[in-house]
TrEMBL record:
Annotated family: Belongs to the AB hydrolase superfamily. AB hydrolase 4 family.
Residues annotated as catalytic: S184 (charge relay system), D313 (charge relay system), H342 (charge relay system)
Species assigned in the record: Absidia glauca
Domain of life: Eukaryota
Gene: ABSGL_00539.1 scaffold 832
A Pfam entry, by short name: Abhydrolase_1
A GO molecular function held by the record: acetylesterase activity
Domain AB hydrolase-1, first and last residues per copy: 101-344
Protein name as it appears in the record: AB hydrolase-1 domain-containing protein
Gene3D superfamilies in the cross-refs: alpha/beta hydrolase
A biological-process GO annotation: medium-chain fatty acid catabolic process
Amino acid sequence: MISSFKLFHHDQPVEVTSNDTKVALPFVDYITSSCPSLSATYTPTPYLFNGHLQTIYSSFYKYQSPNVNYERELVTMNDGAQVALDWTVGEKQLGDDSKTPVLVVLHGLTGGSHESYIQGVLEKVIQAPHYYRGVVMHSRGCGFTEITTPQTINGASTSDLRQTLVHIRNKLAPDTPMVGIGFSLGSNILVKYLGEEKENSLLQGAISVGNPYDTLACVNYLDATLFRRKVYSGTMANNLKKIFIRHMHMMKKHPEIVPEEVLSAATIRDYDNACTKKVFGYSTPNNYYRDGSSSRFIEHVRVPLVCINALDDPVSSPLGIPWDEIKVNPYVLLTTTDYGGHLAWFESLLSPSRWIDLRLAEITVALFKVKRNRVYGGPPQIALVSSSSSFPSIDHELSKSLKLVWGYLD
């Protein structure tokens, strides 16, 4: 079992210029030339030979980098809620950090700055030779943050991210680069924000990892078999209920919440029906999922965006990938691997580690170096050029890859 990145993109990718070389290149060519590890093949750990095993192993993999340490900041939102930001701290980050490029990280459904998939990337970008800075934004109630309003996680809302980015931007020098990276539900929120903001994004580039894109399609996929309902949807519902229990005293203040109904939820749809739709005013869970799907916004993204998905991901199903919407947007590059599971991509035999970490770090560095010829809040000054790269069509590659991995998804 060997896999390599397959690239899907617009026929005329947007042209970008590196601050290092001052040479303008089509976005796809710039990323591939700046990130040599992208050409490497991925060989999964032999005993983690499908997406289920990769994903399950990931849930038990608790790597904590000794080089990633945090300092917490609490930020108050407009409605009185608070969001926790965990800033990386280190020897090279003491003193005035206003000119140090910042990587803004969004975690998965109920995750936080402790997650191994976050620590693996941060340890590579905050150390030599880069010494960049990272900040992990926690959704309401996550990361052991107390909630001050009867609201927890909302995968459809970008308001907290928008306010948080303004807060971070105000702490930095005007020309300091900010790049975003999101994982799973966090990547969905990130891409939705980028599509909503278009040219006005405060991020100069972003990376989306394991994005479900179409959350309704993905939830329907999880509901389709008993195995997926029990193993994946059930686990996510239990994680959501843990956060609900932790903040029960506040959640009970919401007039429509019935704690017994929430705690009896067996799937993520059950939980959203008992809690999320009521707290955020949706008539049905399906309308919540439709509202939150970043697939509706990705064609409007106007900063360089790299999306990474494994085609055997049993949580963020490839059924949700908006292939056509990605192909019509010259700012977006989608890279896929046949294997890797959900936020997993483990390799090696005795001590498996994430193959994807180095690739994410290289892409992050490349995006930091993109010259953004704009004043924040104004339109970008970038042109479209023909790509010198040649890749197979989406339809052909998708068909071939899904035939290869589809058997592992059920």
